[in-house]
Specification:
EC number: 6.3.3.2
Keywords: ATP-binding, Ligase, Magnesium, Metal-binding, Nucleotide-binding
Shape: globular
Cofactor: Mg(2+)
Radius of gyration: 17 Å
Largest sheet: 7 strands, mixed
Structural class: alpha/beta
Distance between the termini: 16 Å
Helix content: 25-40%
Family: Belongs to the 5-formyltetrahydrofolate cyclo-ligase family.
Strand content: 15-25%
Catalytic activity: (6S)-5-formyl-5,6,7,8-tetrahydrofolate + ATP = (6R)-5,10-methenyltetrahydrofolate + ADP + phosphate
Number of helices: 5
Number of strands: 11
Length: 226
């Protein structure tokens, strides 16, 4: 299974590199931004109905191959009663720190906020960049295992949102028990929800239609499924 997972990982990385260099990049990020913003507003609204406490959201500062979430990141940072965090690498894992400017460039070309001793009780929502996802809604990551280790330490499991520029979804099981599981998977042209994990669901039908249409009509490579 590990060899199969690594094979998918390399394929997805190559596809994201093509997307990164393509003319469609800004269009794809625009679609992702709209979908993510809509979902976040829905989740924040639901949180306000049940709690007066500020909502905590884990964002990320994007690499070139990842969806550029900086516009949303800075927008939600200015919102009241919303606490924004980003990862701060610590060895083979990371902790989270409040998103504050200026950022510093660290290992792997990742930009981080300054270290902080701020204690957080829980994260309500986590936005996680991903290479892809398997049928169990588990993450196919970049191979470092940092997100897996971090989420394993959390007592309260947040609502996880995977986001990817390509429709990198496989109907096979290629992940392991420790891999992070998602509640939502957002791509430019199809979004899936864990609670609707049925093949007759509209989102799955849409995804399968895109996959078939790509083969028949030679649609762009960012609509690939595997």
């Amino acid at each position: 299974m590990q060899n199969l997972k690594e094979s998918y990982r390399q394929h997805y990385k190559a596809n994201l590199k093509k997307i990164q260099d393509s003319k469609q990049l800004r269009y794809l990020d625009y679609r992702l931004e709209k979908q993510l913003d809509k979902l976040l507003k829905k989740l924040i609204c639901a949180h306000k109905k049940t709690s007066k406490a500020p909502i905590s959201i884990l964002f990320y500062y994007p690499l070139k191959s990842e969806f550029d979430c900086r516009k949303l990141l800075n927008s939600y940072r200015k919102s009241r009663n919303i606490q924004i965090f980003i990862p701060f690498m610590c060895g083979i894992s990371f902790k989270i720190v409040k998103y504050r400017l200026p950022l510093q460039k660290k290992a792997f070309g990742i930009y981080e906020a300054k270290n902080s001793t701020f204690y957080f009780k829980k994260i309500n929502i986590a936005i996680i960049p991903t290479l892809g996802m398997d049928k169990n809604f588990k993450r196919i990551g970049f191979g470092k295992g940092m997100y897996d280790r971090f989420f394993d330490t959390l007592k309260h499991k947040p609502t996880n949102i995977f986001i990817c520029r390509g429709i990198h979804y496989t109907h096979q099981t290629i992940t392991e028990k420790h891999d992070v599981q998602s509640n939502f998977f957002i791509t430019p042209f199809a979004s899936l929800k864990l609670e609707d994990q049925k093949y007759d669901n509209l989102d799955y039908c849409q995804l399968r239609f895109i996959s078939l249409s790509r083969r028949r009509r030679k649609l762009p490579y960012f609509t690939q499924t595997f």
